[in-house]
Amino acid sequence: MSIDHAAAPVRGAGLPASITPALLNRLASQVAAAPGAATVTTTAPYTGEPFAALPSSTAQDVEAAFGRARAAQVGWAATPISERKRIFLRFHDLVLERQEQGLDLMQAENGKTRRDAFLEIMDIAITARYYARSVERLLDPKRRKGALPLLTHTTELHHPKGVVTVISPWNYPLSMAAGDAIPALLAGNAVVQKPDTQTAVTALWALDLLEEAGLPADVWQMVIGRGSVLGDPLLANGDYVMFTGSTASGRHIAQKAGERLIGASLELGGKNPMIVLADADIDRTVEGAIAASFPSAGQLCVSIERMYVPDQIYDEFVSRFAARTKELRIGAAYDYSIDVGSLTTASQLETVATHVEDAVAKGATLLAGGTPRPDLGPLFYEPTILADVTPEMTLFDHETFGPVVSIYRYSDLDDAIQMANATPYGLNASVWTRDGARGRAVAARIHSGTVNVNEAFAAAWGSIDAPMGGMGDSGLGRRHGADGLLKYTEAQTVAHQRLQGFTPPSAINHDQWSRILTLALKTLRRTGVR
Which terminus has fewer CB within 10 Å in the chain: N or C? Predict the structure, then answer.
């Protein structure tokens, strides 16, 4: 059930016609907040002007949302899987049909380019379709090998956790908001979600579409506010936590989840490497490096921040990569004419500028970019390439999360792999070569949850039938694949013992019984039975 409240929509100048005060007001009404709640006004990164006024939820609002969610989850879990599937396939269709409005909203509140926003539309359509068409197979009861052949009938069942807490970030407002809720909901859970306030309107748009597709009221609810206010009740009431964000916050959430003995899936930071092999196609690799480093102005967890290039092609590659980077079109446009958009927040701009200034002051060489662009808008920063980066520089091993990449020369591939792995993170990596088998062999040696050969990140991310997640300080748990849905369930084993159990019949003593069972085990070993 949506909560009525007084929310004053704000619509700054220069926004597309699809973003109307009526739309913003309708989406704001989806926030779980009491009538008369205080509001927070977000700004549009392109211009710095006010964008939307959203009600702020309180800790009491979170508690109430969980109460409604628990009541709604009972009926939702009892809904036939075929009906859940129908709802999410309809949602798939609505996302594609209404994509222009979704693209406008993502650009308006995040500042990314339209091409980067479209990747989110495509991602959510793929996710909805994949899980809708996989949920029956994943949740169907499965026969498992019994303890005693023929005598033990064993079945694996999966039950929904209950109410899942999802905390999603601002950088991919549709992919991270809807992408983690979809499998949780299809598994029969309810979801209470806190999207980042800056990009909450896109998350609310997804909720609005899914309810239009047929999702019952209160099964998926959104609360808006600061983590310092809402974090404790979100962690205290959920039966599972899905979080995407910083490693520091992830550690805190893991601790709280551990205290309650509930599960958590955490996608955290990264300092993702790209290794270019000597035989790489330079034209293709340069374009791949552009796609790897500067999507969403570098504000992508799986984007590349470090590149390792061999001596044999270093000079040519760096020259061409720098020249291509300088050609990129930077700016704000609600069409596909721009290559690199805006950063999203002033704090992110400050981080990027500080990292670059620190590196240059300590001896790094600027090969491209390195300058903010206030002439284009308040939060624009040029795509930047740095060489001669050394360990005392902040960006050497700290995540920048902006349009900045450091490039390093190597002479021995083993050294390059060692440098790529010299980080506590392990989220994503990229390898470039003409020899696919060799590329896959190198990929297997990189300490990273996903590795792409001749691609930046889209190949692994888009292979939604395979798990995606981080190693080390990049998190725990996996999204995508079977794990991406089954993590939101409780596995249950039902074992039905028939005819003879594990105690001897009355006519046989324990010594005889142990000999009989020993003979049976040896026979099973010879026949190859598991």
Answer: C
Active site residue 267: yes
Order across the sheet with 142-144: list the strands.
142-144, 152-160, 489-497
- At 125, list the tokens: 């359509």
Instruction: Report d(CA 482, CA 488) in Å as an integer.
Output: 11
* 49 noted as active-site residue: no
Strand partners, 489: 160
How far, in Å, CA of 102 to CA of 123, rounded?
13
Distance CA 170, CA 48 (A): 16
Please tell me which residue in 120, 267, 305, 382 is annotated as part of the active site.
267
pLDDT digits (tens, 9 = 90+) for 66-102: 999 999 999 999 999 999 999 999 999 999 999 999 9
Give the start-to-end residue ranges of the domains of the chain.
21-268+482-489, 272-469, 500-527
Distance CA 475, CA 461 (A): 16
Superfamily of domain 21-268+482-489 in CATH is: Aldehyde Dehydrogenase; Chain A, domain 1 (3.40.605.10)
Average confidence (pLDDT) over 408-412: 98
- Say which of 301, 305, 382, 399 is annotated catalytic: 301
Global confidence as pTM: 0.95
8 Å CB contact between 224 and 62 = no
H-assigned helices in 273-345: 282-293, 311-327
**What is the 3-state composition of the chain as percent helix, strand, coil, each rounded to the nearest 5?**
45, 20, 35
Query: CA-CA distances (angstroms) from residue 303 to 92, 242, 423, 525?
Result: 26, 21, 15, 49
Nearest to 287 by CA among 456, 460, 416, 113: 456
Q: Which fold, 272-469?
A: Aldehyde Dehydrogenase; Chain A, domain 2 (3.40.309)
Q: What is the pLDDT of residue 10?
A: 61
